[in-house]
Amino acid sequence: MAYNCLFSGVKLQTLADASENYHALLAENRKLFNEIQDLKGNIRVYCRIRPFLPGQREKRTSVEHVGENGELVVADRSKPGKEGHRLFKFNKVFGSDATQAEVYSDTQPLIRSVLDGYNVCIFAYGQTGSGKTYTMTGPNSSTKENWGVNYRALNDLFDISQRRKSSITYEIGVQMVEIYNEQVRDLLSSDGSQKKYPWQL
Ligand SMILES: Nc1ncnc2c1ncn2[C@@H]1O[C@H](COP(=O)(O)OP(=O)(O)OP(=O)(O)O)[C@@H](O)[C@H]1O
């Protein structure tokens, strides 16, 4: 009997050590993961080339070169030689045939960073019709394959928080606002008088 108790005590101690080591390793893994994200750059700028839409003809300017290193050369055919070429540099350029999954792949690791306590902002910028909604939300009849960045990011947020639920509880909230003509509106408010920002308390 005394021998049995001693044996169980040793076993419990080993389990406690293993658990402690496991959590230390997890913390180290988390730290290293976020350091890599830091090294990849705190501010990353990606360019996505939108394909020509049906019926749309090639315009005066055309994409001359898309480099693996994030270089993009655009040519203005009305100007001869070097004068008509402009070079832009990004972290990465996604060609017109890039899928929604490819575009999201570089952003995906940042979603894990959010759940590790880092602030992350992802936004699309471009002239009207350039493909912001397509990239961030997806086309109208959205299948999972067509999901844009927002759907994929939320899916990953819930997925990771679910996987970590035995050790961490997350509270997730969503706010949706529109900035149009320098006015900010709360798109989730059902009360018309509360729609305009700043909201009155
Ligand atoms: N990568 C793409 N592949 C195929 N079609 C695309 C792509 N990007 C955009 N489109 C199409 O181009 C059109 C304009 O795109 P979208 O509505 O996303 O532009 P936008 O930048 O959000 O415009 P706005 O600022 O006017 O809202 C849409 O018909 C969209 O389906």
Automatic annotation (TrEMBL):
InterPro entries: Kinesin-like_fam (IPR027640), Kinesin_motor_dom (IPR001752), Kinesin_motor_dom_sf (IPR036961), P-loop_NTPase (IPR027417), Vik1/Cik1_MT-bd (IPR031852). Residues 42-201 form the Kinesin motor domain. It comes from the Eukaryota. The keyword Chloroplast does not apply. ATP binds at residues 126-133. Keywords: ATP-binding, Coiled coil, Motor protein, Nucleotide-binding. The keyword Transport does not apply. GO terms for cellular component: microtubule cytoskeleton. Residues 15-42 form a coiled coil. One of its GO terms (biological process) is microtubule-based movement. GO terms for molecular function: ATP binding; microtubule binding; microtubule motor activity. Belongs to the TRAFAC class myosin-kinesin ATPase superfamily. Kinesin family. This is Kinesin motor domain-containing protein. The lineage of its organism: Eukaryota, Viridiplantae, Streptophyta, Embryophyta, Tracheophyta.
